[in-house]
Amino acid sequence: MNQNFDIIIVGGGAAGFFTAINIVEKNPKLKVAILERGKEVLSKVRISGGGRCNVAHACFEPNDLVKFYPRGEKELRGPFHQFCSGDTIEWFRNHGVELKAEEDGRIFPVSNSSQTIIDCFLEATQRLGITILTGQSVQSIFKKDNFWKIEIQNENYLAEKLILATGSNPKIWEMLQTFGHAIVNPVPSLFTFNIKDARIKELPGVSAHVSVKVKDTKLTATGPLLITHWGMSGPAILKLSAWGARILFEKNYQFTIFVNWLNDVETEDAKKILKDLKLEHAKKAVSKKSPFDFPNRLWESLVLASEIESETKWADLSKIQLQSLANQLTNSSFQVNGKSTFKEEFVTAGGIDLKEINFKTMESKLHKNLYFAGEIVNIDAITGGFNFQNAWTSGYILADSI
What we know:
Strand content: 25-35%
Distance between the termini: 27 Å
Number of strands: 21
Structural class: alpha+beta
C-alpha cells in the first residue's frame, strides 16, 4: 500500500523539523510527512548543550559567521545573507521561545532547557497538520516518473519532493551514491585528545588560555584548554580537532602537540620575564606561586618538569633551569595517543559533496525535487551553536525555494 504526500522529509531531527514547519507555514496546502527511523524525534536536540540546547551563536555578520565552519565556509556565505543568527532569534521569538546570549556568545533558550525547543517544534507540527511517523527505517529510494518512492519495511510512501535531513547516516549516503552523488568520506570532528603525561596527571579540572599547534602541520588554535582525566579538552583542542579532522584522521590520532601556556609570548620574551622575576623575588621559592595568569598547580607542575626542586629559590636558578622553564611555559610538547568523543557531540566531517548542491535552493544539482538540509552535506562547524545554525539556515532556504 502506498501513502501519498506532496513532500516527504526523511530525518526527525533539528533540520527536518525546522524545514517542515517553514514549508507548511509558507504554504499550508502542502501535505508533508516527517519519517524518523528511531522511536523518538529530536533526540540530538534533547542532549545538545548539556541538555540546554545551544541553538545558535551571537555572531550576526554572515562574513564573520562563515569562519567557524572548517567545511562549508565558501558555500554558506550566500545562505547566511538570507537567514543568519539574528533571524534565528526572531524566528524562535515568533514561535513563543525567548533566547539569550551568554558571555561566550552561545545562545540558549531562556528556560535553559532543550525541552522548550522540542515542545516548540512539536506544537508547531501539530498545529500545521504535519504527519510525524517514527520507527520508519528507509530500505530504499526510487525515482518514478515525477515521484519519489520511499520503501520502509512494510509500507511505501510516494511524494513529489523528497528532502533528506538524515545527518551522518551512512545507509542514506550509500543510497545517494547509487543516484550518482559523491560522498566525501566521513571522519570524526570535535573530539578531545588522549594524553598520558606526568605533568598533567594530577591536574584534571585545571584550565588556561593557551595557543596550541600540531607538530609538522599548519594547524594552530588559541583559546581555553581544559586538562581532563584522559588528556586535554576545551575550545582550543576542539578547534584543532575540527580544522584538523582529515589530517588527524590520516595520522591515526597519533601526533605531537606544542602548548604555549602563555598564549602568544615567545620563548625569548618568557626568558626575559623570568630573569626579572628572579631579581624581584630572589628570596622566594620558585614553585610556590604562579606569576602568570594560570593556576598555581599548573605552575608547580611546569617548574618540577624543568628540573627545579620545590624548595629552590628564584635567586638560585641557573641559566639552564631558566631556559628549561621558559621552554616548558611556551613550548611544552605532549604526545597524543587517540581521541575521545566530546560529550554527546557526534559531529562528522564528510557527507554529500558541496559541488553537487545548489545553495540558493538546497536542491540536488543531479536530481530535480531532491533536497538536503543540515549535516547530511559535507558541512560542519566547531562547537558553540554553529552546527544548529547550518540546520536552520539550510531548512529555511529550502522551505523558501519550495
